[in-house]
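re the bet — no i am not wrong, look at it urself. input seq straight from the record:
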Amino acid sequence: MSSTFTVYRGISRREARDVLEEQRYFRDERVRFGNSKFGAHAVFGSGIYFIDDYEVAGQYAFCHAVHENDDCTVLRQTLTFKAPLILDTHYTEAELRTDVLRWRLGTDKVVEFTVAQEKTDIVLPESIRKYVLHHRYDGIIYLLPNGARYFISYFPEKQVRHIQIDYEFNLEEALYKTFSELRQLKHKNVK
């Protein structure tokens, strides 16, 4: 049984044109924004990362656009999973990282991750991806404490459909309006 979700991804307008034309993504999340420590980092390995919150997707679009000196686009699409790994309060990111490390090292002597360790790269992102796929999951749904969900698609060519523009804006507009206001303006102008 599969589950389908409406998800968002914030990218630069230039990248969005290519994605829309081909109806597929060409790069995963491995972007550092300028020479800052901020970036979109693929903590669960290579794949396409989405979120179900269009405002957070707007923040990602803004960061990509600043980095690429371009305008901002938030894309909306459907994502279908057959067997996603669920990360939430019942099975946390720290528990996943501990399991991956045990699996990689072949030992039960690995101590559990502390909160401080859970955000480090001690467990390499590609090891997490390999672990998830080895256990026959086709992606990850990460339920955040604020209720938002991140989605990591490891097979986007099979899982992602109906890619379309949800809203667009330029960098200057983002300085004076919230992402929700920018989206409302776009949707109002379409009607």
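see?? The longest strand covers residues 3-12. told u. also The chain has one domain: 3-86+126-190. so pay up
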